[in-house]
């Protein structure tokens, strides 16, 4: 029974029960610290910084805010500053300097209602172009902010007046591979996924996946759109190949029903865009690998190019809790290290092993993708990944 | 509730949907399950068994699971709930490894973290693009429309909605969506917009490491997804931020996939320079060599791999294949000889191309040396040439076609070996070597085509090879238009494009267009062999024999061993004699003289070719070559380590072996600059420029040397020269700004004329030092310097060389001699590229001291023409007051001379143009 150990294992590194409701947890880039965001029982917001220390986690800083904090991101901050952008229950967007978290370095009343999701791009060396933060709110609007511009968003995507406002549950940046191109993807409670092109200021693509969209994420923010994963309320998730858009059929996709309950989050491994983890409502985590098809696009009868979806491989699944996992974040610095928070008021640090050995290998024989001939020299963790010879 | 209890408590998820009544109890049986092949049903059975409603049968359940797995290993029914692994799930070693790894990371990252916090105050807002155009209200409107439409799209309309339905509006909306779809369809083009350079100014080392790794990871991912072009782009970005062996190695792999063998070679070289025993790089280089039919080199590389890793499977496999090929080649050697040659002739177009295809690498020795082709797939660039050649051309002759483009004897020798791909005894030293420090400047010094144009060109080449000349023509035309639209300053590339298009025209029989293209190519790169030959052929076919004759003759000056050209010349001579009688020669247009330096390379190549035939001499040459290459590599290594003094020694030895290698001069100049021995650096740059008059690096380094010598004017003019050659060199631009500032400062502070005198003094010293440098170097070099003063220049290039030599020796007598020989009306053309403040003042000095007394008429003539030189007014502005004074004196002297050639008024008019 040695086989199971060849696949990635999810190891519980440490966990801590907290006395408040946790909504989000994020690694501080280039550190062994992470922040936890949530709501205390008194209805105030809490922001805690924990640090890994000798196989455990230790609280290093705690700050209390007036409103419960729903979500946060470091994505729009430089590596030198590492400012955290947060969205709270009152619709405020704040940017905090974690060294001096008493006063926000940027603050704006972004929305009328709770900010459900926030994402950033342009910082941390991820994504070319200006640093921008996108917020999605229950008031139905999605707004893009530049921390250098006070009070007003640089882009605002809202439904026309009189239209029922849909609760926006999730937002994600993508396609930021040069100075101009950039996309925002938003998911709504009615199952709508909308892709806004910030360069042309237009809706580029939309799709309804029938159930509320809990989480969307591009496999990488800073490359030409490649894949988009959208998870839904009833346990399904969809992976769209965003490279080839067919004029009528749109993007090719593959879907998988993994969890028996809501898939709360999807997060791609920062070191390998084809591996991602989904976090389920039943307290379980599923680790997936997307396998590309032999050809990513083909010509259909009318001479139009059509994308071909790949297949999904379940690499591992674990159950952590009975309560939903509300957030998950991979460490950008250490492959396989992740932190997740769940509604049982517990934060966990997990290690996923052997991620660097995941190739098309596991189940490769099944999905028919020929494994490239390997040179046989085992590579170091730092990944000289492409190491095949070319003799075909 | 404690969390430990949660995570360890088993979770019961009842498969409520699976009702037992659909599965009869009889089916819960080993035999039935074994026979059953209905996966769905088996999964149902499994559900029932697991539920335990019919009793708990662990073995049967397991059996059923296995059977399901056999039918579909990825069946969802097989997914079980797992719990996070703990130390108990691993062996002690594994667990230790996991924990230790994390602990080391933790320690490292904490140090990094602290360092980052220290640097908190350096914000690099400079790099950040401006805030997005924040025209909120307008966006709102446009979005609202789109959004409202999309909202209703998926939901059924209510009856009220139908009442409001406006057909016109809906139609308009459909149109709108159509247009958006169109805009979305141009996805693939945007790939080209990934910039291969990243602005890293203001980033800390640490950030650069993070960035470089990230770009590399992106490259790896793109590679895995099969987007090799994209992967190469990301690796290039990574390397641009910070050169790492892994990124180079991976880029080599991606290039293997794209079959860009020369790029593979150069990338592997880089890795091997940093890590000489990197097996992967060796293997990849072997693969590239194999594809390029350079079997011996491939063989050597693989043996190197097998020495360190005897069990490397792929190396063994590769070795087998190569051994087979080598054997096959040996067998075919005798009768294949001639065929190979012909292919060789066609090769060189591709060679050029592959060099250009490189995205950002400078054309280093490594690459050029590898520039050979799989001789197998050949259609024929220049088939006409082939026909002409088949008469008398021999291998080595054909080879020399390439020499011009490279000017690197090492590469030449190497290529020679490559050409005889079957010659088994190859010198290991022929291995390409890209000078280490060249890489750091790679991005600025590249004159390569941008990817889309390179692609067009390659497509064109491919089509040409396949004989689809019309289509190839179109591709080249597109490439040329793209080229001019992009306003790229790279005459070499454009020259090649024109030359290739000319080949297409020639094939199509469109001789006049061929001539036009060749002429354009020659304008860009005077004395390129191929355009000359093609134009000659085109002229010949148009029966314009005189012009054809001239072109053939010019080509033969460059390379006297082109048999086809000789044949044609003989043929044309006969025709012309028939046509014009005995005085046919007088009716010929003037045959331009080819610069000696261009010829020299070819004679060198010829001589080495001759050597090649004789085994003993060949051996000696090889040894010299080996020593040369190793010295050069050592020199480059030392430069990388910062041991410039030692590097100078190595390079000097190199030059003793071979004094016509431009790169050695520029490299030694770099060392001298680092050692602050600016005069010597300048001398080296001059030598380099004598060998290669448009070497950007030499100009740039001479500028630095001049700057070090506080000769800001010369520095500025050199930098302008660099920028003229390649506008994209940012360093030069920066230096120029700096120097201009210094110059201004100097002028401003120097108004009381004292500091100005200082400058002149330095100037004199400078010249002295240069003289000293020449004297202190070996006698041979002294001789060669004096030899270079060719007092009978026949073209601008030779004139420039001679003038430079004279000036560097401060030899006004030689200069006077030189000026006497030059027809005054062609002086502007001759002097144009060389003219800077010092040259001008030197000429003035010469005129004043040597020529004025004896030949005032000539002085007047020369002065009368000199001011028409290009850039003259700019140069004039660069003069310092002393030089101006000198000029005024000259005119005063001229005024005082009585001569019938000019009047006092003429002098005054002329003086106005100068002063």
TrEMBL record, chain A:
Q: Where in the cell is it found?
A: Dynein axonemal particle
Q: Which GO terms describe its biological process?
A: apoptotic process
Q: Which UniProt keywords are given for this protein, alphabetically ordered?
A: Apoptosis, Cytoplasm, Repeat, WD repeat
The ranges of the WD repeats are 133-146
Query: Mind telling me which Pfam families this protein's record contains?
Result: WD40
Record's keyword annotation contains Cytoplasm:
yes
GO terms for cellular component: dynein axonemal particle
Q: Is rRNA-binding included in the keywords of this UniProt record?
A: no
Q: Which InterPro entries does this entry report, sorted A to Z?
A: WD40/YVTN_repeat-like_dom_sf (IPR015943), WD40_repeat_dom_sf (IPR036322), WD40_rpt (IPR001680)
What is the purpose of this protein? Answer: Key assembly factor specifically required for the stability of axonemal dynein heavy chains in cytoplasm.
Task: Please state what the protein is called.
Answer: Dynein axonemal assembly factor 10
UniProtKB/TrEMBL annotation, chain B:
Domain annotation RNA-polymerase II-associated protein 3-like C-terminal: ranges:
792-884
The protein's name is Sperm associated antigen 1
SMART domains associated with the record = TPR
What spans are recorded as compositionally biased (Acidic residues)? 346-359
Any idea which UniProt keywords this protein has?
Cytoplasm, Repeat, TPR repeat
- GO CC terms in record: cytosol
Spans annotated as Disordered = 346-399, 413-451, 745-791
The record, for InterPro entries, names: CiliaryAsmbly_MitoImport (IPR051982), RPAP3-like_C (IPR025986), TPR-like_helical_dom_sf (IPR011990), TPR_rpt (IPR019734)
TPR repeats span: 212-245
Q: Where is the composition biased (Polar residues)?
A: 417-427, 775-791
Q: What organism does the UniProt record list as the source?
A: Astyanax mexicanus
User: Where, per UniProt, does this protein localize?
Assistant: Cytoplasm
The cross-references to Pfam families, in alphabetical order and at most eight, read:
RPAP3_C (PF13877), TPR_8 (PF13181)
Organism taxonomic ancestry: Eukaryota, Metazoa, Chordata, Craniata, Vertebrata
């Amino acid at each position: 029974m040695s086989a199971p150990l060849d696949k990635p294992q999810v190891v519980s590194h440490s966990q801590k029960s907290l006395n408040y409701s946790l909504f989000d947890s994020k690694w501080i880039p280039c550190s062994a610290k992470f922040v936890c965001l949530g709501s205390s029982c008194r209805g105030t917001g809490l922001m805690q910084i924990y640090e890994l220390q000798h196989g455990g986690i230790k609280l290093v800083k705690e700050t209390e805010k007036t409103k419960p904090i729903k979500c946060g991101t470091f994505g729009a901050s430089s590596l030198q500053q590492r400012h955290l952008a947060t969205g709270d229950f009152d619709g405020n967007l704040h940017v905090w300097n974690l060294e001096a978290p008493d006063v926000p370095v940027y603050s704006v009343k972004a929305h009328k209602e709770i900010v459900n999701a926030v994402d950033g791009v342009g910082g941390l060396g991820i994504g070319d172009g200006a640093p921008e933060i996108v917020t999605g709110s229950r008031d139905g609007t999605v707004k893009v902010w530049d921390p250098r511009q006070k009070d007003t968003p640089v882009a605002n995507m809202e439904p026309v007046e009189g239209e029922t406002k849909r609760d926006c549950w999730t937002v994600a940046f993508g396609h930021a591979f040069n100075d101009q191109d950039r996309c925002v993807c938003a998911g709504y409670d009615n199952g709508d996924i909308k892709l806004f092109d910030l360069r042309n200021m237009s809706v580029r693509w939309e799709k309804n996946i029938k159930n509320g969209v809990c989480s969307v994420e591009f496999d990488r923010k800073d490359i030409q759109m490649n894949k988009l994963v959208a998870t839904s309320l009833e346990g399904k998730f969809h992976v769209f190949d965003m490279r080839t858009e067919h004029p009528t059929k749109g993007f090719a996709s593959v879907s998988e029903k993994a969890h028996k309950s809501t898939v709360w989050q999807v997060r791609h491994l920062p070191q390998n865009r084809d591996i991602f983890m989904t976090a389920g409502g039943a307290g379980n985590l599923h680790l997936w690998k997307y396998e590309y098809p032999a050809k990513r696009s083909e010509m259909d009868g009318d001479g139009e190019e059509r994308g071909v979806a790949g297949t999904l491989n379940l690499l591992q699944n674990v159950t952590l809790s009975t309560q939903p996992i509300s957030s998950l974040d991979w460490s950008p610095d250490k492959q396989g290290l992740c932190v997740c928070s769940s509604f049982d008021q517990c934060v966990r640090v997990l290690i996923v092993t052997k991620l660097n050995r995941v190739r098309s290998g596991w189940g490769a024989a099944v999905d028919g993708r020929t494994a490239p001939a390997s040179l046989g020299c085992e590579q170091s963790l730092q990944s000289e990944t492409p190491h095949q010879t070319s003799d075909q | 509730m404690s969390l430990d209890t949660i995570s360890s408590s088993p979770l019961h998820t009842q498969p409520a949907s699976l009702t037992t009544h659909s599965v009869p109890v009889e089916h819960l049986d080993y035999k039935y399950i074994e026979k059953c092949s209905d996966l769905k049903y088996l999964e149902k059975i499994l559900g029932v068994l697991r539920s335990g409603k019919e009793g708990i049968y662990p073995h049967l359940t397991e059996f059923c699971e296995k059977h399901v797995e056999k039918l579909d290993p990825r069946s969802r029914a097989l997914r079980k709930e797992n719990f996070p692994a703990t130390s108990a799930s691993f062996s002690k070693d594994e667990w230790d490894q996991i924990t230790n790894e994390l602990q080391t990371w933790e320690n490292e990252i904490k140090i990094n973290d602290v360092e980052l916090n220290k640097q908190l105050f350096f914000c690099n807002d400079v790099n950040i693009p401006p805030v997005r155009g924040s025209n909120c209200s307008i966006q709102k409107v446009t979005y609202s429309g789109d959004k409202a439409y999309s909202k209703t799209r998926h939901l059924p309309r209510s009856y009220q909605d139908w009442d409001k339905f406006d057909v016109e509006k809906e139609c308009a909306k459909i149109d709108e969506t159509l247009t958006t779809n169109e805009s979305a369809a141009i996805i693939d083009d945007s790939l080209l917009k990934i910039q291969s350079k990243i602005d890293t100014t203001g980033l800390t080392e640490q950030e650069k490491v993070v960035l470089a790794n990230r770009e590399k990871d992106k490259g790896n991912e793109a590679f895995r997804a099969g987007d090799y072009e994209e992967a190469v782009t990301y690796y290039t970005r990574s390397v641009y931020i910070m050169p790492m062996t892994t990124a180079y190695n991976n880029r080599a792999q991606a290039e293997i996939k794209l079959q860009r063998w020369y790029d593979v070679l150069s990338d592997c070289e880089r890795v091997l320079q940093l890590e000489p025993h990197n097996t992967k790089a060796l293997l990849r280089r072997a693969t590239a060599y194999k594809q390029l039919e350079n079997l011996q080199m491939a063989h050597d590389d693989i043996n190197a791999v097998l020495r360190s890793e005897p069990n490397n499977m792929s190396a063994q496999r590769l070795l087998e294949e190569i051994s087979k090929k080598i054997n096959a080649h040996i067998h075919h050697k005798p009768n294949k000889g001639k065929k190979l040659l012909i292919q060789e002739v066609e090769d060189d177009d591709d060679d050029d191309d592959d060099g250009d295809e490189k995205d950002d690498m400078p054309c280093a020795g490594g690459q050029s040396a590898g520039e050979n082709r799989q001789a197998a797939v050949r259609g024929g660039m220049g088939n006409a040439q082939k026909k002409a050649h088949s008469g008398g051309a021999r291998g080595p002759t054909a080879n020399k076609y390439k020499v011009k483009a490279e000017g690197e004897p090492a590469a030449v020798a190497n290529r020679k070996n490559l050409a005889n791909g079957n010659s088994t005894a190859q010198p290991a030293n022929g291995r390409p070597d890209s000078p280490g420090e060249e890489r750091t400047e790679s991005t600025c010094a590249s004159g390569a085509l941008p990817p889309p144009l390179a692609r067009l060109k390659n497509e064109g080449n491919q089509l040409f090879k396949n004989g689809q000349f019309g289509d190839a023509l179109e591709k080249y035309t597109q490439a040329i238009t793209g080229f001019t639209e992009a306003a790229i300053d790279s005459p070499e590339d454009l020259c090649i494009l024109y030359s290739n298009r000319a080949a297409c025209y020639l094939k199509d029989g469109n001789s006049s267009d061929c001539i036009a293209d060749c002429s354009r190519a020659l304008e860009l790169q005077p004395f390129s062999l191929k355009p000359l030959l093609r134009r000659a052929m085109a002229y010949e076919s148009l029966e314009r024999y005189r012009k054809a004759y001239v072109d053939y003759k010019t080509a033969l000056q460059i390379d006297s061993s082109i048999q086809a050209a000789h044949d044609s010349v003989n043929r044309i001579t006969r025709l012309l004699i028939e046509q014009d009688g005995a005085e046919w020669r007088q009716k010929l247009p003037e045959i331009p003289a080819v610069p000696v330096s261009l010829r020299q390379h070819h004679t060198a190549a010829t001589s080495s070719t001759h050597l090649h035939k004789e085994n003993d001499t060949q051996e000696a040459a090889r040894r010299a070559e080996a020593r040369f290459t190793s010295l050069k590599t050592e020199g480059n290594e030392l430069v990388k380590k910062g041991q410039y003094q030692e590097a100078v020694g190595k390079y000097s030895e190199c030059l003793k072996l071979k004094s016509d290698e431009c790169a050695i001069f520029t490299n030694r100049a770099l060392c001298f600059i680092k050692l602050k021995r600016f005069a010597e650096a300048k001398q080296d740059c001059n030598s380099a420029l004598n060998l290669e008059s448009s070497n950007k690096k030499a100009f740039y380094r001479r500028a630095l040397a001049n700057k070090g010598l506080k000769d800001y004017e010369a520095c500025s003019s050199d930098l302008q020269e660099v920028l003229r050659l390649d506008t994209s060199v940012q360093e030069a631009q920066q230096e120029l700004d700096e120097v201009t500032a210094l110059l201004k400062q100097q002028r401003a502070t120097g108004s009381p004329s004292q500091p100005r005198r200082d400058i002149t003094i330095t100037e004199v010293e400078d010249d002295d030092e240069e003289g000293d440098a020449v004297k202190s170097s070996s006698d041979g070099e002294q001789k060669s310097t004096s030899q270079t003063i060719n007092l009978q220049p026949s073209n601008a290039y030779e004139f420039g060389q001679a003038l430079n030599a004279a000036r560097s020796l401060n030899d006004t007598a030689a200069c006077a001699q030189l000026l006497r020989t030059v027809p005054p009306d062609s002086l502007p053309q001759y002097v144009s590229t060389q003219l800077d403040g010092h040259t001008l003042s030197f000429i003035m000095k010469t005129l004043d001291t040597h020529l004025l007394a004896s030949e005032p008429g000539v002085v007047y003539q020369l002065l009368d023409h000199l001011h028409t030189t290009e850039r003259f007014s700019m140069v004039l502005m660069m003069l310092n007051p002393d030089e101006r004074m000198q000029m005024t004196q000259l005119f005063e002297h001229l005024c005082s001379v009585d001569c019938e050639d000019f009047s006092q008024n003429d002098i005054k008019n002329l003086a106005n143009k100068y002063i």
